[in-house]
Amino acid sequence: MPADLKYRRVLLKISGEALMGEREYGQDPSVVGRIAAEVSQVHALGVEVCMVIGGGNIFRGLAGAANGIERATADYMGMLATVINSLAMQSALERLGVTTRVLSAISMQAVCEPYIRRRAIRHMEKGRAVIFAAGTGNPFFTTDTAAALRASEMGCDALLKGTKVDGVYSADPKKMRNAERFDRLTYLEVLSRDLQVMDAAAISLARENRIPILVFSIQDSGGFADVVTGRGRFTIISEETSRE
Fold first, then answer.
1. Residue 234 contacts by C-beta under 8 Å, 6 or more apart in sequence?
2. Which residue in 38, 54, 104, 197 has the fewest CB atoms around it within 10 Å?
3. DSSP code for 141
């Protein structure tokens, strides 16, 4: 591993909404391509990369349940949306020369491989990018929890959450100009302050497995590579105190 790399194996979590760009629904191909270029840049550094992509740009389970669809059914629909996003990202990455495998927690072998932990690890060891689709395969769990679960199963050194802002704030900085930005937080501080970084199950799972969570802006060019090399602007959530 090159000396300037801080993490050997990472999981990148991005929301489905991140793929929309300025659209109100679906994917913006230019945005998908730009994020793929960020992943390709990190992959070229020699980092083993896996990803979890949400499905909220196509269908959100909670919204579907609010509109009268049974919650479990709505969540399965949301899982299928993540497969669509994962296939789009796979296509964009492979156009850039990054061999990519999509592994789905729901079996659909005509379009992607079933999720098998040892197979996923082997793909990464062979230098392939891996995208985990269909969440955990179970309703009532978010893709944030799926990201923490897969990062734990893969033995990742860090879970990186790409968002629209450059870290964790006390409130939405686009709505509250005086929102406080944090450079470092503990898992318990995130939970006790209800900071809405990821859901409580995801934070707890990362804490149990001692996986630091780094929150950064996926919209900043080169931001993913900067975080992996320990530079850039991000908030780190770990067991260490935030007052260091």
1. 166, 167, 214, 215, 216, 227
2. 38
3. -
Helix (H) or strand (E) holding 159: strand 158-163
Report domain extents, the chain. 9-238
CA triple 210-167-15, angle to 5 deg = 80
**Cα gap 233→226, rounded to integer Å:** 8
* The amino acid at 159: L
Angle 19-196-117 from CA coordinates, rounded to 5°: 65
Burial class (CB in 10 A: 0-12, 13-18, 19+), 49: buried
Q: pLDDT tens across 66-114, in order? A: 889 999 999 999 999 999 999 999 999 999 999 999 999 999 999 999 9
The CATH code for residues 9-238 is: 3.40.1160.10
Q: Using CA atoms, how far apart are residues 121 and 192, in angstroms rounded to an integer?
A: 34
Q: Closest Cα partner for 81 from 99, 98, 100, 64?
A: 64
pTM of the model: 0.95
Rounded (to 5) percent helix, strand, coil in the chain = 40, 20, 40
Please tell me the distance from the alpha carbon of residue 177 to that of residue 154, in angstroms, as a whole number. 38
Whole-angstrom Cα distance, residue 32 to residue 124?
A: 21
